[in-house]
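Re: the request from the purification team.
They wanted to know what the chain is likely to look like in 3D before they choose a buffer screen. I agreed to run a prediction and write the result into the notebook, where they can find it.
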Amino acid sequence: MKKILILNGPNLNLQGKRDTNIYGTTTFEEYIEELSIRYANKVEIAYMQSNIEGELINAIHQSVGKYDGIVFNAGGYTHTSVALRDAISAVATPVIEVHISSILAREEFRHISMLAPVAKGSIMGFGLDSYRLGIEALLD
């Protein structure tokens, strides 16, 4: 059975409460439970969220040998963090970058992802289903 870490960055702890017209009303706890049921026989899903960049970097470093892949929504760090980019580059664990909304359809400063060039792939704009699609990409 594969092990996948779903890793979320800043403000994603407010999923279901913040900007519901963009992000929806389902919380991550509810969605992770749905994913765990859906993939019960295929994937062991771990979940971590942090508003602290260093904790996200540590999680990426610690993924080696522990997880078969990471589905990562870095939130606002997507557009600013060279340190997260370097962390992804430094490990063999494949990372799928995901976003709930399409970053290309939002403000111009969100159009550039520091992570996309070092991620295995990027998925955006499918709401919370972007995470399921990220899991599927890692399973293929």
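For the purification team: Residues 2-139 form a domain with the Rossmann fold fold (CATH 3.40.50.9100).
Please add any questions underneath this entry.
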